[in-house]
Amino acid sequence: MTDFPLMFRNTLFITAWNIIFTIITNSAAAYAITRYRKQSRFFNLLYYYFISAMFIPFNVIMLPLVREVSAFHMDNDFGMTFLYIIFGMPLNIFLYSGFVKQIPVALEEAAVMDGAKPYQVFFKVIFPLMAPMHATVAILSFMWTWNDFLMPLVLLSDPKQQTLQLAQYVFQGQFSTNYNLAFASYVLVLAPVLIMYVFFQRYIISGVLTGSVKG
């Protein structure tokens, strides 16, 4: 009834690409902002600009976002992936920034003295050291993207590109609800999140605590 394989592929596609690009782009942005905050007023303002977005509910920007997404033809899985990466930046930059502050600048200076360019310093020195925070961000992004209902509901227009959360609507009728089938489907949808949380919950707790260090 839910076309589970297709919806599972759609949800997995959005979630997987979101995690990959979120880790690469958000960690790079957080690293640049954190290292240059004290030297540049622009980067300091940029940090607070991203952090301030954490206090804006999605409901406030929902209707304007629907118009923009429709105008740019982003009401599909690729557009959803891009939006998840953007909307995840405030929290992820906050977490990554707290972690980057604990990495000694001397490591980067040594790499520069050895002839490394800025992008080499980040990808060969800093990026591997951020592995614990990568795990935390990946898990939080997975849980948010996989469980999200509101954004796909208002943005996805093609039924064949719907996610698993939207597919659960099929059990809700005008006069009745198939509770036995609905709850069986709910368990299948929740299973990946529960399994990931059980095995990786220590990374979530330790990563959030580490990334929330006050600067």
Automatic annotation (TrEMBL):
Its main location: membrane. It comes from the Bacteria. One of its GO terms (biological process) is transmembrane transport. GO terms for cellular component: plasma membrane. Pfam families: BPD_transp_1. Belongs to the binding-protein-dependent transport system permease family. It comes from Oenococcus oeni AWRIB429. It is found in: Cell membrane. Gene3D superfamilies: MetI-like. The keyword Lyase does not apply. PROSITE patterns: ABC_TM1 (PS50928). Keywords: Cell membrane, Membrane, Transmembrane, Transmembrane helix, Transport. It is a multi-pass membrane protein. This is ABC transmembrane type-1 domain-containing protein. The chain crosses the membrane at residues 12-33, 45-66, 78-100, 121-146, 181-200. Residues 8-200 form the ABC transmembrane type-1 domain. The lineage of its organism: Bacteria, Bacillati, Bacillota, Bacilli, Lactobacillales.
